[in-house]
Amino acid sequence: MATRSLDIADIIIGDRLRPLDPAHVKLLADSMARQRAAGLPPTIAPIEVSRSGAKFILVAGWHRLEAARMAGFTTIEARVMDADADARRLREVEENLCRHELTPLDRAFFVEELCRLVGGLNAPKTKSNLKKNLADQSSATIALPEEVAERVKLSRRTIYYDLQLAEALKSVRDELAGLPIAASQSELKRLSRLDDKKKRAVVAELRAGKTFTEATASKASRAQAKGKAGAAQAVWSKMSAAEQDEFLWQKIKGLPERRRNALCRRLIDGGLVTEA
Asked: What is the pTM for the complete model shown?
């Protein structure tokens, strides 16, 4: 397919399956700006678009397009294809599934969309059968054409688990995008097993900056930890200054050298002690 130079202003983004990663866009934009400063053409692959009257609809290459825009380019190399909405979506899915930087969260939803486009997941009987098997957590009877596995080079079992993940996390997908959990298959699986109320509560904690372990800690566990801290504080307050000094000395002396040095450096940097 031949490429041609298109005005970036003439390209319509449209609805995308994968959210834009600003950090990745910035990385690409910086690279393109450096190449231009050195008098070299950008080395990024051409984007893919389809015609829409006098304009063009983006098919694949959103990050490349936004990077070119950020770097100050007004045109970009593109391959122009003739495609309807389903064909454009299928190409977007395939192009992204072939790339290695997809997070487990993104991959699950791309696999689901591919199965919808190629595997007929929207057919009432197939949809009903899929939901039943996902609920039973059994992939034995899910009927998917071999074309799906062949296109994405994934096993049927992996495709099933991705479908299961996408079905369970559909209601919170947008909130999870960009969070560390999006890159953790094991944490996503654990989150997917929670009921909707608990799931949303955990996601809210994650968005507030907590780790998955912190966000899923039960109230009883948190209360127990708080109780232990309170008990330790009570014992400490009853100790004399000399006893506190001795306690701290023994504790610090017993730390591994690396932790001990890090603690001392922290005290110095915080202005609590001065270097000899």
From this structure: 0.56
Decide if pLDDT at 140 tops 50: no
Q: What is the pLDDT of residue 124?
A: 47
* Domain, as residue range, for 170: 102-216
> In this structure, what token pair is assigned to residue 117?
């486009």
Q: What is the spatial distance between Cα 167 and Cα 109, in angstroms, rounded to a whole number? A: 9
- Domain end residue (candidates: 83, 113, 143): 83
Q: Is residue 88 part of a domain?
A: no
pLDDT in tens, 148-166: 666 667 777 788 888 889 9
Sheet-wide strand order for 55-60: 3-7, 75-81, 47-52, 55-60, 11-12
C-alpha to C-alpha distances, 77 to 65, 80, 109, 161, 228, nearest whole angstrom: 9, 10, 28, 37, 62
What domain count does the chain have? Answer: 3
Distance between CA atoms of 57 and 63, rounded to whole angstroms? 15
